[in-house]
Automatic annotation (TrEMBL):
Enzyme nomenclature, EC number: 1.1.1.35
Domain 3-hydroxyacyl-CoA dehydrogenase C-terminal: 184-280
Enzyme type, top EC level: oxidoreductase
UniProt GO molecular function: (3S)-3-hydroxyacyl-CoA dehydrogenase (NAD+) activity
Protein name in UniProt: 3-hydroxyacyl-CoA dehydrogenase family protein
Keywords associated with the record: Oxidoreductase
Pathway: Lipid metabolism; butanoate metabolism
Length: 281
């Protein structure tokens, strides 16, 4: 593997591009928004200069990494990549549009990895003519600093596809934990419930966000509380993920908190918007 395609230049897609470029891979980062690509390029160059301050990677690996990332607004730029990681928003309608296009553009042997929080991999694979080459790779944020990822096997995913993905992850210093396909997988089936219930605590005036997070940090040793984690991930992504779980399981325990829905509607999406449960302005 020397040439990786990354679809989506948001926080996660940019992090994936950084991580692979840092370890010598050439990356084509695609997003239909030119503004998103400009922000992504700025972040890649900032990481090349200052990544050592975060304790991430090695200075030697970052040397020249920005030159290993190319940027494009059309999926056709991925026609000759060896592996694709898709990172677009948690919206099945959008993903359902992208995968058939990738199927027609990429080589028949190119695996597709969905970096999704909750959407089942088998459903994603059904939108392609290569379901045996589709799997999930759930990267954690920030990507360059998180060394463990979920690897999700869909109904049709071939063992050779899993082996290829695990080998590729190993090349960039990551350990993949293989799980079977189910909405939310392991991490987000638990995490989204935790965050959603924490939002209910704020809505019901049991405790302010600061104290909810303080209890999780101080009592359980969590580096971040659930509401600070929600701000980091993005409250819009949290809402989309919990809605996928609610629709998939038809279980009321996954009902989205009204306060979460109201904050998303108000544009309070967390760090990326400057304000969520905390103010980042």
């Amino acid at each position: 593997m020397t040439r990786l395609g990354v679809v989506g230049a948001g926080v996660m897609g940019t992090g994936v591009a950084q991580n692979f470029a840092e370890h010598g891979h050439h990356v084509v980062l695609v997003d239909r928004s030119k503004e998103a690509l400009v922000r992504a390029e700025e972040e890649v160059r900032r990481y090349e200069r200052f990544g050592h301050l975060l304790g991430a990677g090695s200075a030697g690996g970052r040397d020249g990494m920005a030159e290993r990332v190319a940027y494009a607004t059309e999926l056709e730029a991925l026609s000759d990549v060896d592996f694709v990681v898709e990172n677009i928003t948690e919206d099945w309608d959008l993903k359902r549009e992208v995968y058939p296009r990738l199927d027609g553009i990429c080589r028949e042997t190119t695996p597709f990895a969905a970096n999704t929080s909750a959407i089942p991999i088998t459903r994603i694979a059904s939108a392609t003519e290569r379901p045996e080459l589709v799997l999930g790779i759930h990267f954690m944020n920030p990507v360059p600093m998180k060394h463990t990822v979920e690897v999700i096997r869909g109904w049709h995913t071939a063992q050779s596809t899993v082996d290829t993905a695990l080998a590729l992850l190993g090349e960039v210093g990551k350990e993949g934990v293989l799980v079977d396909d189910a909405p939310g997988f392991v991490s987000n089936r638990v995490l989204m419930l935790t965050i959603n219930e924490a939002v209910f605590l704020v809505q019901d005036r049991v405790a302010p966000a600061e104290d909810v997070d303080r209890i999780f940090r101080s009592c359980f040793g969590h580096p971040m509380g659930p509401l600070a984690t929600a701000d980091l991930i993005g409250l819009d992504t949290i809402l989309q993920s919990i809605e996928v779980l609610h629709d998939s399981f038809n279980d009321s325990k996954y009902r989205p908190c009204p306060l979460l829905k109201q904050m998303v509607a108000a544009g309070l999406h967390g760090r990326k918007s400057g304000k969520g449960f905390y103010d980042y302005s």
